[in-house]
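Report of the visiting student (M.T.), summer placement. My assignment was to run the structure pipeline on a short list of targets and document each run. The first record concerns Chaperone protein DnaJ.
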Amino acid sequence: MMTEVDYYELLGCSRDADHATIKTAYRKLAMKYHPDRTGGCQDSEAKFKAVSEAYEVLKDPQKRAAYDRFGHAAFKQGMGGGGGGHAGAQDFGAFSDIFESVFGEFMGGGRPGGGRQQRRGADLRYDMEISLDAAFEGKSTEITVDVSGICEACSGSGATPGTGKRACNTCGGAGAVRAQQGFFVVERACPTCGGSGEIISDPCAECRGEGRVDQTKTLTVNIPPGVDDGTRIRLSGEGEAGARGAPSGDLYIFLHIKRHDLFERHGTTLHAKAPISFTTAALGGEIAIPGLDGEEHVIKIPAGTQSGREVRKRGAGMPVLQGRGRGDMVVHLEVEMPRKLSAKQRELLEAFRETETGEECPQATGFFAKLKQAVGG
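After the run finished, the structure tokens were exported:
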């Protein structure tokens, strides 16, 4: 099953972001990944198309409302938004159906002219916790979910095998009824057949005419490398089954990354704290940090390093989701002073102190000089 990246995640915006925030985020990314600025890089071009598609949907209030409710499935019939193209007449018809699903309940239900209604199965949410190592490498895992699935006894029709359905007498098979209210004619789903336009004479004994039964499913989820906390993966058609043969909903996997013992993640950058001895800080040297890739990354410590200094290791961070390359590793150095000294070490340090001129630690020397002036003043 294909992984689809959430449009809000592509633009780096929250789901409640206003239009101005979304527009600003899109412009920054469009400038960053525009083919004219990246020398025709295929990865950048793919990113440019992806963020353009996301913006085309989220900038339009109606398309955004449909996407918020149905996700990518809202545009599977050709609506799309890729590359800044415009929807044709056929595309608008497909979106019109979705728009009615979102707003129809506030307008009396159903479109003018009636017609049978198929209630799509509900979308489901599954929260999955994974380690930072799994987010780095990607993984394929199985999950078990309790869900209403298609009844195998009647193949989802709701009728006993060998029997059929008949047109509803109340609505004549239209699935909708009309009622006069003053000057207005209000159309609603038929209360007898629930909008399906059909009546089951002999309901299936297994599902009691619903066409679906409670069952437990085992599903495979493919997690790509580089996913971040809150990444959403859609499993199409794995949500609740629709009643009496209606389409199934989708299952959305929301990923949550566990806290790591060493690294703290900010986007594709990994941050780590590393204590170093005061002699290494003074004289310089090297330390080795084990990366999520299984390699030992050598960090060079310049002589005279102060506590709090950051050293960056290029390309040692998290993979870029659905792209190439990796982020960086930033090591925050903390100088650790010795707590216990041998007699020999103390002797050597005493000898060093006797040779100090004040130039070795200019900040300390300058601070106490200013302090004396302030007190003397």
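The chain has a mean pLDDT of 82. Residues 149 and 331 are 50 Å apart (CA to CA). I thank the supervising group for their guidance throughout the placement.
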